[in-house]
Amino acid sequence: MEVAVKVARDREREHALRKEGDILKLLKGIRGFPQLLHAGEDFIVYKFIEGVPFEKVLMDRKERTLVYLKVLELIQILDRLKINKEELHRLDKNTLVGEGLEVHLVDFERGSLGVEKRHNLSQFLQLLVREGLVGFEEAKELGKRYARGEEVYREVERALQTSL
Asked: What is the C-alpha to C-alpha distance for residues 78 and 85, in angstroms, rounded to an integer?
């Protein structure tokens, strides 16, 4: 089995790497996230993920939208587990796309556990507005409702599906 190993380069990053290990423990067994094998004080080991960073994948608009729908599913999982991923306003390096447009969210060093105020979807809506897949006013309204704790995922999903 191929593995990926992340090692803290300095003391400051040790905390971030331990936090990432804690987050990956919660995500163990869930498709679309790195599968942690071992975590130490200054390193983590997880199964290697076959994929290409989102920014380097050549996709047409339909394929991009399908990837966004998969990211939306992963956001729902993160929210349910009270994990804020961070960096969902851009997917470039921290999202890997594999065969069949399989999607993996990686790099949780900046993430947070046990959050009461979720913001994964709010960040993602920023990306969807930039991509022209959701209108600004619609995203603003959905973001407000999401911040109040409303479940607006299906509405975001419908907005994405209309662009297919």
From this structure: 7
Overall domain count for the chain: 1
| CATH code of the domain containing 156 | 1.10.510.10
pLDDT in tens, 41-95: 999 999 999 999 999 999 999 999 999 999 999 999 999 999 999 999 999 999 9
What DSSP line would sit under the chain, residue for residue? --EEEEE-SSHHHHHHHHHHHHHHHHTTT-TTS--EEEE-SSEEEEE----EEGGG----HHHHHHHHHHHHHHHHHHHHTTEE---TT--TTTEEE-GGG-EEE---TT-EES-SS--HHHHHHHHHHHTTSS-HHHHHHHHHHHHTT---HHHHHHHHHHT-
Quick check: is 45 in a domain? Answer: no
Q: Residue 110 domain-assigned? A: yes
pLDDT of 164: 83
Tell me if the pTM is above 0.90: yes
